[in-house]
């Protein structure tokens, strides 16, 4: 049975770190990207500390500083905002007026540069948030695929708009146009991928950006700053560092941010949106909290349900917004389910992110193991038990997954989004109990249902699709493939993300219209023939 002493031994000594995964030294980022310039930073800085610890011969653990980043304040945020506003120039800037083909070319240049920095970014990603090396590589590659798919989707979108439409005596041409200045903030669990899932479509649609990196996973953007600088016109993308609670309210309060895109908490999003002085002018594209449930019916294939629920609950230590955060299992099979679940859980490898096949790694958020412990203790005090041997053992940033049963209303774990390696399980007899859990939740992202009975599944799917935005049948919840819509109801999301949806989310349709007269036809024809407008054109991007 794993205990805290064993967890301690899993932290490496300096010599234990494989040479291929060592960092060449601390990375002290001393530049910001503002108005097309990598400006030297002489102000305050903030240390970046890894979730991994170094163990010495006596068994003492010391934090590992990975480097430091600029810690800006209002003045720097103001400068970045001014650059983004100037680059947009009320829609007259070089970027928002550029042809789609030209914007695509800039994005292709950026992608090439980004791919060239893959090794550095992946390594930093692993060290900054403790994501396994294999998953860090996957995150990078998925992001590059996403950028390429976005480029293809925009090409199609634009080609489909490269024609005139005639209706009721009116000639029209309709294209998607940018919204203005976008403030983009991503999450720490997918610092590269989910940040870019909003940043890239926002950029390519012609918006100008203020980019505030996530609270963990910041240094990994350092190798990409030069690529951003050289691939895009001045001021199109500007970095903002510093205390979120200070700089972000300032930016929104300025009234100059047109779109807020945030993958984070609904509480923060709620607060921020209210700060904009003209509420109707602010568009928000948000990926927020979730407490996705798995409903395992009496006739479910237990082996399949166990495999998917384990993946769903504990991939990247449960730190996914799509993670299964409550397992609702029919009481007739719950004991068998728990027995198999804990057996399989025991096979998960706990260790350092560079180890092959590792599943459970250190957690980046300070205080997270204490919060996990508090959730478990609260449930124990109210009659639940830890089902798996060693569950809840912890040491510094390591927390060994705890399966907690039976969880019931009133416990923290019943409603709070644990976002970590604790698996609450509750039994049900009547399916209404399971449905009621989903209906009364503040969240509405996804659900998983496990059954082999078509009638049962059909009956459940119909009410559930009106409660959440994706019902997964006999599989865990997840975002991908990235061409599928990713969104949620209630406090889980605003707007929709996917390769094609994001292009729409970060743009608005504008059109030109003229009466269907000979004079108009002649005029429009001449504009097209002589390439007088970038908007009015019938060109095809190959
Ligand atoms: O953290 C939330 C992510 O959107 C989850 O994405 O389902 O691809 O792991 P994923």
What does this protein structure show overall?
With 542 residues, the chain is α/β, with parallel strands linked by helices. It is built from 17 helices and 25 strands. The chain has 2 domains: 238 residues, Aldehyde Dehydrogenase, Chain A, domain 1 (3-Layer(aba) Sandwich); 194 residues, Aldehyde Dehydrogenase, Chain A, domain 2 (3-Layer(aba) Sandwich), CATH 3.40.309.10. The strands form 7 sheets. It has a 7-stranded mixed β-sheet, with helices on both faces. Strands 10-9-8-11-12-24 form a 6-stranded mixed β-sheet, with helices on both faces. Strands 1-5-4 form a 3-stranded mixed β-sheet. The longest helix is centred in the N-terminal third of the chain and has 29 residues. The model has no long low-confidence stretch (mean pLDDT 97). It binds glyceraldehyde-3-phosphate. Glyceraldehyde-3-phosphate binds next to loops. Glyceraldehyde-3-phosphate (G3H) binds next to loops.
| β-sheet strand percentage | 15-25%
Q: Give me the CATH fold name of the largest domain.
A: Aldehyde Dehydrogenase, Chain A, domain 1
Helix-and-strand structural type: alpha/beta
Q: Report helical residue fraction.
A: 25-40%
Major sheet attributes: 7 strands, mixed
Using the coordinates above, name the CATH class of the largest domain: Alpha Beta
**How many individual β-strands?**
25
Largest sheet, spatial ordering of strands: 15-18-19-14-13-21-22
Q: Compute the gyration radius: what is it?
A: 25 Å
- Total individual domains: 2
Average pLDDT, rounded to a whole number, is 97
* CATH architecture label of the largest domain: 3-Layer(aba) Sandwich
CATH 4th-level superfamily of the largest domain: Aldehyde Dehydrogenase, Chain A, domain 1
* Uncertain runs: none
Overall shape: globular
Number of helices: 17
Task: Write out the distinct hetero groups bound to the structure.
Answer: glyceraldehyde-3-phosphate
- What's the end-to-end separation, in Å? 60 Å
């Amino acid at each position: 049975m794993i205990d805290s002493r064993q967890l301690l031994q899993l932290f490496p000594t300096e010599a234990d770190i494989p040479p291929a995964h060592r960092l060449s030294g601390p990375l002290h980022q001393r530049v910001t990207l503002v108005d097309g310039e990598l400006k030297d930073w002489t102000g305050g800085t903030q240390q970046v500390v890894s979730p991994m610890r170094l163990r010495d011969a006596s068994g003492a653990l010391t934090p590992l500083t990975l480097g430091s980043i600029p810690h800006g304040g209002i003045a720097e945020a103001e400068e970045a905002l001014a650059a983004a506003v100037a680059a947009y120039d009320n829609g007259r800037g070089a970027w928002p007026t550029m042809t789609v083909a030209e914007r695509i070319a800039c994005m292709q240049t950026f992608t090439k540069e980004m791919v060239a920095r893959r090794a550095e970014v992946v390594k930093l990603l692993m060290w900054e948030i403790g994501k396994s090396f294999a998953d860090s590589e996957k995150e990078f590659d998925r992001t590059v695929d996403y950028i390429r798919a976005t480029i293809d989707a925009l090409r199609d979108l634009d080609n489909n708009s490269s024609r005139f439409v005639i209706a009721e005596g009116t000639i029209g041409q309709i294209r998607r146009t940018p919204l203005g200045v976008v403030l983009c903030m991503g999450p720490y669990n997918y610092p590269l991928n989910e940040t870019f899932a909003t940043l890239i479509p926002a950029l390519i649609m012609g918006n100008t950006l203020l980019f505030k990196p996530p609270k963990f996973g910041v240094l990994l953007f350092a190798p990409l700053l030069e690529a951003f600088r050289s691939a895009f016109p001045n001021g199109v993308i500007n970095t903002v560092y510093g205390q979120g609670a200070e700089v972000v309210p300032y930016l929104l309060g300025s009234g100059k941010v047109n779109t807020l895109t945030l993958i984070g908490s609904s509480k923060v999003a709620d607060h921020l949106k209210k700060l904009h002085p003209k509420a109707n002018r602010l568009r928000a594209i948000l990926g927020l909290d979730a407490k996705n449930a798995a409903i395992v019916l009496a006739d479910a294939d237990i082996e399949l349900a166990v495999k998917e629920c384990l993946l769903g609950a504990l991939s990247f230590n449960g730190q996914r917004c799509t993670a299964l955060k409550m397992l609702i299992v029919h009481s007739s099979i719950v004991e068998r389910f728990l027995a198999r679940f804990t057996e399989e859980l025991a096979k998960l490898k706990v260790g350092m992110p560079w180890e092959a096949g590792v599943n459970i790694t250190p957690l980046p958020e300070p205080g997270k193991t204490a919060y996990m412990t508090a959730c478990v203790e609260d449930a124990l005090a109210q009659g639940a038990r830890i089902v798996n041997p060693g569950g809840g053992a912890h040491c510094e940033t390591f927390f060994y997954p705890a399966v907690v049963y039976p969880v019931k209303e009133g416990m923290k774990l019943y409603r709070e989004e644990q976002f970590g390696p604790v698996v609450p399980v509750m039994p049900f007899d009547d399916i209404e109990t399971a449905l009621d859990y989903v209906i009364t939740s503040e969240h509405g992202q996804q659900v998983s249902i496990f059954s082999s009975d078509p009638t049962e599944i059909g009956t459940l799917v119909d009410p559930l699709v009106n409660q959440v935005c994706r019902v997964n049948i006999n599989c865990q919840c997840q975002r991908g493939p990235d061409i599928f819509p990713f969104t949620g109801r209630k406090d889980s999301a605003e707007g929709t993300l996917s390769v094609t949806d994001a292009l729409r989310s970060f743009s608005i349709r504008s059109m030109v219209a003229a009466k269907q007269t000979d004079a108009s036809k002649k005029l429009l024809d001449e504009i097209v023939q002589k390439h007088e407008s970038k908007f009015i054109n019938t060109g095809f991007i190959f």
